[in-house]
Amino acid sequence: MSEVKVHPVKAHIAQHALLDEAGYQSMYRQSIEDPDAFWGEQGKQIDWIRPYTKVKNTSYDPGHISIKWFEDGTLNLSANCIDRHLATRADDIAIIWEGDSPEEDKKVTYRELHEQVCRFANVLKAQGVKKGDVVSIYMPMVVEAAVAMLACTRIGAVHSVVFGGFSPDALASRIIDSRAKVVITADEGLRGGRRVALKANVDEALTNPKVDTVEKVIVYRRTGGNIAWHPHRDLWWHEATQAARPDCPPEEMNAEDPLFILYTSGSTGTPKGVLHTTGGYLVYAAMTFKYVFDYHPGDIYWCTADVGWITGHSYLIYGPLANGATTLLFEGVPNYPKTNRMAQIVDKHQVNILYTAPTAIRAFMAKGDEAVEGTSRASLRIMGSVGEPINPEAWEWYYRVIGDERCPIVDTWWQTETGGILITPLPGATDLKPGSATRPFFGVQPALVDGEGQVLQGATDGNLVILDSWPGQMRTVFGDHDRFEQTYFSTFPGTYFTGDGARRDEDGYYWITGRVDDVLNVSGHRMGTAEIESALVAHPKIAEAAVVGVPHEIKGQGIYAYVTLNAGEVPSAELHKEVKDWVRKEIGPIATPDVIHWAEGLPKTRSGKIMRRILRKIATGETDSLGDTSTLADPGVVDRLIEERSRVA
Ligand code: WTA
């Protein structure tokens, strides 16, 4: 390790920050020593219809995994994000929308948001959507995506947002698993000047004979592009909302009623429907937003994540709106039409808090000063990073060039499953070390364990587990509680296993080293190697495939696919393209392999298990440290793979 640079808390930040070091220490201590008292108090930050009398009721005991928070309280999430601000800040801006084209933008006040959400909630009701029904949302980054989510929460429907970049097949499998009754989409999306055929994708997904629950498709008109229309099934957003009443009383929900499902990739099988519930999720999202970004009323906040990911749920919509903040929702891509677009948006809307991903930062860094050309970014106070480990070089560049050495960077570690941020600096309290997510948030007890599950002490490397529950934790895998237990609580019994590896240094700071399972993180997008492999083997010419991650300068990880063709098939440039296009079509562009390695055979143990450790080493060229290959069924396969690699384009 080269020497670690420390950036102490800045005086100008500390002066106004919500918390200093002593504040963090005492709150953290209380949160661990007496979680009931701590969260009982923090839970009051949001509005309850019927206040809770119980706070924490959780068990990590093998066979009895059960997580409940505030279980006898009732509330409504949309009322917390909208209605409760109306008395004091109805005319404040809730959402600033910036279009794909710099010429297009609009501002929506809390009062206007209230009306839009109520109208759309009434549209859903009129279509027969009831409390507990699932609604799929497959939308571009428009205000209506947020309206659709909030409207679901208003009537107690469970939303399942599917990233607009996913293919019809990926959408279909999520609709099938969640048993969605309604799909909300747009005619087309607009990103980087290109149109995305969302409605056509929905039409195709719904031709899958296993999709048998969808009754209605509601279509928001974004581009006016040509689309097919099924009059018995499809309805226009604008027509339906015009006819709807502008008020809709919020449904009284139990704290543990399902709030949303969000699919995410694991090391095996199909994506899992991560289920979050209402009370604990909201308390945790609201509180982390406030402290991690040191939010002060009036701040303009911009999170660049898509609504299709957890960051787009917790820190684009729910966390900010629960705090009455102004959140910026950007339709496009950060380097279109020019490399300095992100910085231009910061100046245009006077953004104070910016939350983005290392992959974007590295892409800007590769362009140097072009990324900030003609901009001042003087409004920025706090900057955040999320989605993957940020390398110290990218951290320093972000700090120096985007933030002019004025803004602390909060490197926030968390997961779809955790609902909110678990390990992070706090701007007024934590000295920063580039590349480290630093210390746990309130109520979070991280630990490092060895392969046998022994908890390790002091400065060390290990598997990252969390010893006890926090309010934002997922409650189950939708429809499959066994899988929930199996995936997260069986590897190291008695703890929640994150799937990540980490190092803890002498100061107790955590450095996330990345996934220790077969999950890839490509440009901050989570993907299971198994998913990409099953897409590959679905190709009629492919016999077998194995996928591993390799370091990639911009994306963090790239996708390296070993592909064995059926007997008689011959590798060619055409087939190479065909296979890449196939995966794009099967899953979506984010899953496109970077490298295709035509392999005559794969390294397997005598019991037929593919030895990925060897494939990873060969992909990265570390062929002199392959380790023990004696258990291979055919040791000769390794030499052939190494020889083939020299021909890989
Ligand atoms: C990785 C995104 C290092 C990690 C919120 C985790 C990170 C996975 C960081 C979850 C970070 C996320 N530093 N690694 N600051 N943030 N990760 O579910 O491997 O899309 O397990 O949630 O991203 O990805 P997910």
Automatic annotation (TrEMBL):
<dbReference type="GO" id="GO:0005524">
    <property type="term" value="F:ATP binding"/>
</dbReference>
<dbReference type="InterPro" id="IPR000873">
    <property type="entry name" value="AMP-dep_synth/lig_dom"/>
</dbReference>
<dbReference type="InterPro" id="IPR042099">
    <property type="entry name" value="ANL_N_sf"/>
</dbReference>
<feature type="binding site">
    <location>
        <position position="584"/>
    </location>
    <ligand>
        <name>CoA</name>
    </ligand>
</feature>
<keyword id="KW-0460">Magnesium</keyword>
<feature type="binding site">
    <location>
        <begin position="411"/>
        <end position="416"/>
    </location>
    <ligand>
        <name>ATP</name>
    </ligand>
</feature>
<dbReference type="InterPro" id="IPR020845">
    <property type="entry name" value="AMP-binding_CS"/>
</dbReference>
<feature type="domain" description="Acetyl-coenzyme A synthetase N-terminal">
    <location>
        <begin position="24"/>
        <end position="81"/>
    </location>
</feature>
<dbReference type="Pfam" id="PF00501">
    <property type="entry name" value="AMP-binding"/>
</dbReference>
<dbReference type="GO" id="GO:0046872">
    <property type="term" value="F:metal ion binding"/>
</dbReference>
<dbReference type="Pfam" id="PF16177">
    <property type="entry name" value="ACAS_N"/>
</dbReference>
<comment type="function">
    <text>Catalyzes the conversion of acetate into acetyl-CoA (AcCoA), an essential intermediate at the junction of anabolic and catabolic pathways. AcsA undergoes a two-step reaction. In the first half reaction, AcsA combines acetate with ATP to form acetyl-adenylate (AcAMP) intermediate. In the second half reaction, it can then transfer the acetyl group from AcAMP to the sulfhydryl group of CoA, forming the product AcCoA.</text>
</comment>
<dbReference type="InterPro" id="IPR045851">
    <property type="entry name" value="AMP-bd_C_sf"/>
</dbReference>
<feature type="modified residue" description="N6-acetyllysine">
    <location>
        <position position="609"/>
    </location>
</feature>
<dbReference type="Pfam" id="PF13193">
    <property type="entry name" value="AMP-binding_C"/>
</dbReference>
<keyword id="KW-0007">Acetylation</keyword>
<feature type="binding site">
    <location>
        <position position="539"/>
    </location>
    <ligand>
        <name>Mg(2+)</name>
    </ligand>
</feature>
<dbReference type="GO" id="GO:0003987">
    <property type="term" value="F:acetate-CoA ligase activity"/>
</dbReference>
<protein>
    <recommendedName>
        <fullName>Acetyl-coenzyme A synthetase</fullName>
        <ecNumber>6.2.1.1</ecNumber>
    </recommendedName>
</protein>
<dbReference type="GO" id="GO:0016208">
    <property type="term" value="F:AMP binding"/>
</dbReference>
<keyword id="KW-0436">Ligase</keyword>
<dbReference type="InterPro" id="IPR032387">
    <property type="entry name" value="ACAS_N"/>
</dbReference>
<feature type="binding site">
    <location>
        <position position="526"/>
    </location>
    <ligand>
        <name>ATP</name>
    </ligand>
</feature>
<dbReference type="InterPro" id="IPR011904">
    <property type="entry name" value="Ac_CoA_lig"/>
</dbReference>
<keyword id="KW-0067">ATP-binding</keyword>
<comment type="similarity">
    <text>Belongs to the ATP-dependent AMP-binding enzyme family.</text>
</comment>
<feature type="binding site">
    <location>
        <position position="537"/>
    </location>
    <ligand>
        <name>Mg(2+)</name>
    </ligand>
</feature>
<feature type="binding site">
    <location>
        <position position="542"/>
    </location>
    <ligand>
        <name>Mg(2+)</name>
    </ligand>
</feature>
<feature type="binding site">
    <location>
        <begin position="191"/>
        <end position="194"/>
    </location>
    <ligand>
        <name>CoA</name>
    </ligand>
</feature>
<feature type="binding site">
    <location>
        <position position="515"/>
    </location>
    <ligand>
        <name>ATP</name>
    </ligand>
</feature>
<dbReference type="InterPro" id="IPR025110">
    <property type="entry name" value="AMP-bd_C"/>
</dbReference>
<feature type="domain" description="AMP-dependent synthetase/ligase">
    <location>
        <begin position="83"/>
        <end position="466"/>
    </location>
</feature>
<dbReference type="GO" id="GO:0005829">
    <property type="term" value="C:cytosol"/>
</dbReference>
<feature type="binding site">
    <location>
        <position position="500"/>
    </location>
    <ligand>
        <name>ATP</name>
    </ligand>
</feature>
<feature type="binding site">
    <location>
        <begin position="387"/>
        <end position="389"/>
    </location>
    <ligand>
        <name>ATP</name>
    </ligand>
</feature>
<feature type="binding site">
    <location>
        <position position="311"/>
    </location>
    <ligand>
        <name>CoA</name>
    </ligand>
</feature>
<feature type="domain" description="AMP-binding enzyme C-terminal">
    <location>
        <begin position="531"/>
        <end position="609"/>
    </location>
</feature>
<feature type="binding site">
    <location>
        <position position="523"/>
    </location>
    <ligand>
        <name>CoA</name>
    </ligand>
</feature>
<keyword id="KW-0479">Metal-binding</keyword>
<dbReference type="GO" id="GO:0019427">
    <property type="term" value="P:acetyl-CoA biosynthetic process from acetate"/>
</dbReference>
<feature type="binding site">
    <location>
        <position position="335"/>
    </location>
    <ligand>
        <name>CoA</name>
    </ligand>
</feature>
<keyword id="KW-0547">Nucleotide-binding</keyword>
